[in-house]
């Protein structure tokens, strides 16, 4: 199945919409990398290496999600994964709008795995080399994050490792503007992102996207509709 351009675009938008969340999660480590050296050239090499590592982990998670999605489709015809994806998008939108924090419970589940992985980062701090930055980014990609889980929920529905991996790669690219700017202007950016209109606009896009998926599954799907009308 060829991955549609609109799907990759939605992955980038998903990353962009969660900019405030990204700064909260990764802003600190980006600032640390930025201040780790006075040499501007090496500073940016470290920051870029960290980003490559982080996005590589997202892509790896996407490949795993695609395989799991493919396996689950063989078990049932009911669109379980698509339903989960739509619900997660709505929950993420509600979280960004600060209307409901239910998605944080999902992050708590992810912390069980993170508690096993995070001790490895102690060997990479302080970051003195590009290789350390790369590995630190790869570890940080597994940080419990509702936005990443929301994206993975959608990646699951694509149900092939390549397509799901590509979706997560483009999601990672969508998070770049916020995380790259975090080190240089995190205070200014945080103030702007915390403005109500910005939060509500981002939240609305995610919530509408979630409802669009659910509507397509249960109300607009021709095969399901046909089944009810013709039988």
Please, how many helices?
10
Strand residue percentage: under 5%
Mean pLDDT: 85
SSE order, one letter for each helix or strand: HHHHHHHHHH
- Tell me the major beta sheet: none
In total, how many domains does the architecture comprise? 1
What's the total number of strands? 0
Q: Assign an overall shape.
A: globular
Spatial separation of the terminal alpha carbons: 31 Å
Please state the CA-atom Rg, rounded to the nearest Å: 19 Å
- Class inferred from helices and paired strands: mainly alpha
Helix content: over 70%
Low-confidence regions: 223-231
How would you summarize this macromolecular structure in one to three sentences?
The protein is mainly alpha-helical. Helix content is 80%, strand content 0%.
Notes on the protein architecture:
Keywords: Membrane, Transmembrane, Transmembrane helix. Residues 11-212 form the Urease accessory protein UreH-like transmembrane domain. Helices cover 80% and strands 0% of the residues. It is globular. The chain has one domain (5-80, 101-194). Helix 2 (19-35) packs antiparallel against helix 3, helix 2 (19-35) crosses helix 8 and helix 3 (40-73) packs across helix 7. It contains 10 helices and no strands. Residues 223-231 have low confidence and may be disordered. The protein is mainly α.
